Every structure is written in structure tokens, then in C-alpha cells.
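Shipment paperwork, digital attachment
Item: protein structure file
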Amino acid sequence: MKKQLFLSAALLLFLCLFAMPCYGVVQSDSLAIKIGQMLMIGFGGCTVEDSPEIVADIKERHIGGVVLFEYDLPSRTHNRNISTPRQVARLSQDLQKQSKVPLFIAIDQEGGKVNRLQSFRGFPASVSAQHLGQLNNPDSTTAAAVQTARTLKELHIGMNLAPVADLNSNPQNPVIGMLERSFSANPAVVTSNIRLISGIYRDAGIIPALKHFPGHGSSTTDTHLDFTDVTATWSENELEPYRALIASGYRDVIMTAHVFNALLDPIYPATLSKATLQGLLRGKLGFRGVIISDDMQMKAIADHYGLEAAIQKAIEAGVDILVFGNNAAYDPAIALKATEIIKSLLARKIITPERIDQSYRRIMELKQRYHLD
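Attachment content:
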């Protein structure tokens, strides 16, 4: 009996260490896999046959995630990754089949004007966060969140880059307020709605991602288009939704903002700021989950920092997943470039292997917890 128990335990250990490429953090996992897991890449095409570059990124560079869009900015056409529900479900499944490690398949399905799954394509109609915040009715918010979660589950999309935790501090904000992306200017209303939505997503097996830390609601300009300084408009109450959810155990995903806020860091915007991400988000607020960047190709970053400097500073700041949406600008080689830059930073001892391991552990723990398929 003891011999059988010993053999069973030995077999279990073997399986955990060597026969589970999908899950688990193993010290011997290759550096290429660990680096790849830190990248989320956008691509063109509605099928894997249309998208040989992303297939190569998955198979050869082991990228950890992809992000889907409906509208293609470079060509200014509604011809990106999303055509019909059946097509999206097939695309998601085919992408997963390319990878030995389950992919984060992500989308910005906030509802209202930020809506990748349009009703004219056969997806359910959606309402904006502002609409739900004005109602501030748990039943209405629940119904909207359940519908979104069910739709994403049917499409095999495992991460929603939502809900928005920004306060509607400036209703004329071109990228938050005017697009009705914020639930309210009242932190309590925002907190109650994002808490409810995040819980519904989690129960459905959809990973939520609160955004945009440490607050984008007071800005007067758009980080997609240029450097955005919120120093004079930002207030500490913009942290309240994050503070409340983290205090109650939230440990999924938080997305950074590319906003510059001299009150928090006199040199770098939040995505590149160690003071903001390590000092404030992880230190003072106690967040232990995955930090994901906003799109690193947005002009607030891309026009002011070289690719290597941006990647280095983001990793040093504490970003676990670097997003390259390939929609602000399209670069089919961006995953290869980012991979080589991170390898070079390691070789020159600018970034340590331990820092990569920290992100890898957080990413793999999240994937394991959600049993991605």
C-alpha cells in the first residue's frame, strides 16, 4: 500500500513538472516561453489562414495572448477580426489550437460606443457604462453583464478589457466622457457597478480587466493621439474604485493608462512609472494580480519613447503583459521585435530573470485559475 502511494505521488509530481505544458510555473520552462507570455498582440484577418503572422507569433514566439478588433484603423474599414458570431467562435478556437499554452483571447467589449460585437453582425445589442450608471440599478447592470459574459463565453473569448473604472470627472473628455465609457463621476456608483460586473464575469469564467489606472476620466486629451497630462485635473478619489475592489480581494487584471501625472511621477506616464505601478498600485493599494498595459503603440507612448525604452521602462515599472494592438499602426514583426528587445535587456543585465519570472508566475496563475480553453 505504501509503495502504491509512493508511486502515485511520484507520478503526480512528474505530471505537474513535465506533462502539463498548459499550466503551472516550472523553473525549467524556457526563457522564450516566459518572454512570450508577456506579450498580447493584435492582428489582421478573420481566420488563421488569413493571419500567418499571428500563427507564427503563437507557435514560434509563444505569445501569451491576442486581442480582437472589429474596426481596422490603418485601412479605415470594418474588416479586422470580427464578421459573424460563428466566425469569431471558430477563429478563437483555431487560435487556441495553435498554442501549447492556453491563450488570453481578449476584446474591448464595454458596450455602447466601445463595442466590438456590433448588433448588425448578429451580436446582441449593448448599452453604455454611462447608461447603466445613470440607472444605477443592480438588476439592469446584472442583465447587461450576464449578456456580455454569455456572449463572450459562446465566442471562446476569455478576457474582456472592461469594465472601465474611470470617474466621469470631465464629461467633455474626448476618450472617456464623450464616449459614455464611465459609469459616473461618483466613486461609489462606479465602484458598485464594476464590482457587480467583475463578479459576474468571474463567475462565468471571463477574466475582467479594470481600466485605466490610475485614472483617465479627468483628461482633456486622448492618449491614442498624443501626450496626455492630467496633473492639473486628476484627484485622488479616482483611486477609490481600485482601492475598494482590491481591498475586497480583487486579483484579476488591471490595465494601465498612458497618462502623465506629475503628482505621482514627475518623469514618466503611468504605464512606464515604477512609482505609480510598484509604489502605488502594488505597494499602497496591495494589488497582487496581473498588470496589463494599454496599447503600447498609442501615440502617448510611441511618439515620445523608442520601442526599446518603452518596453524597458514598462517592465521595470511592473507591467506583466505588454499589449501591441497593431491597430494604431500595423507592424507584423512587432512580437519578434519585442521578444528580441527583452532578450537583449536580459543579456545586458538591465532586466533580471527574476523580474521576468515574477510576471510569468502571475500570468500562469491567472490562466490556471480560469481554466482557459
